[in-house]
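Protein data sheet
==================
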Amino acid sequence: MDGPGSDVAHDLTTENRQLRDQLHGLVEMARQNEQMMRRFNQLELSLLEATSLPELLQRLLYQTREAFGLDRVTLTLIDPEAEFTRILNHFALPTEQIPELFIDTTPEQLAALYHGQLQPQLGDFSEPHHTRLFPVPPYPKSVATLPLLRQQTLLGSLNLGSIDREHYCHECGTEFLSRLARVVAICLENSLNQERLKLAGVTDPLTQVKNRRYFDQRLDEELKASNRHHNPLVCMFIDVDHFKQVNDVLGHAAGDAVLRQLAAMMGSQLRASDILCRYGGEEFVALLSDTSLDMAQEIAERIRQLVTGQGIALSDGKTVQATISIGLAALAPQRKVDVLSSARHLLAAADAALYLAKRNGRNRVECAALLDPQEEQPG
């Protein structure tokens, strides 16, 4: 028969096994935490090294998903002044091309999702509650929503989703996630400030479209892209008719109002990928990539008609009627051309077409012949 001693030995053996299992569990947890911290540090470093807003968004949305084995990562940004939107348009990357990014103009609806507690929230996916953050099925089973705060201001929300119902639960710790939210908020704020500085150097302060410096930079880039992809490139010169009379009769404040509102009208008819710049004075220029001359003429005529049919509102309540003249020139796609020569020919042809529109009575669109930069151009 087994005596009391055998019972004690059995209890000790069981206790030792339990202690070993607990130790193995703690070691495994420590190993997993170490791996998670390593992945987090790598992600943090990658986010901090991003050199532009598009690069930051790409790393945030896709590297976060890969680093933590997630099924969905989305980002909601509060953009009341449309700054993020303008910056992405500057990179020819409209927000609709980033399906994981959502823009809110006010913080109220997003803040309501946090029930007044702006801290990471983990738990099961709730269709009425989380569909705003994950609007496209298949929906995740568990989610973590991280408020992005700077100086007590809600910038947005980073939203993490997993098809594993146990991945995020109410009892899970939030230390890693809180730190991630702080890093992302800092990166977004820094990126926004850097892009503001960059844009300030290439943006016309009156009309808020790009300036001539930016146009000169992008013209070279667009010509190279046209050569590389064998696509046509159109240059559109736009001049405000009789603009000196507006300044002389109504004053420079009225002239400024005319330029601001005309720039807005022109921009409303162009694609996000098109480039509109104030070239100088009352003259604007636009580059339309991968656009035929016929299509560009339709766009130019649409702009001209919009301006003609809509008065310019002045601060004193009066309105002034403005018209514009437009000259168009298109560069035929070539396999290998000199960029500097092509730029010179394209601008000269568009300028000549604009002069023809002025000479033929103003308030009209004129087109130059399709240019072949490999042929000798008239001086």
Q: What stands out?
A: The first strand starts at residue 72 and ends at 78. The chain has two domains: 11-200, 212-367.
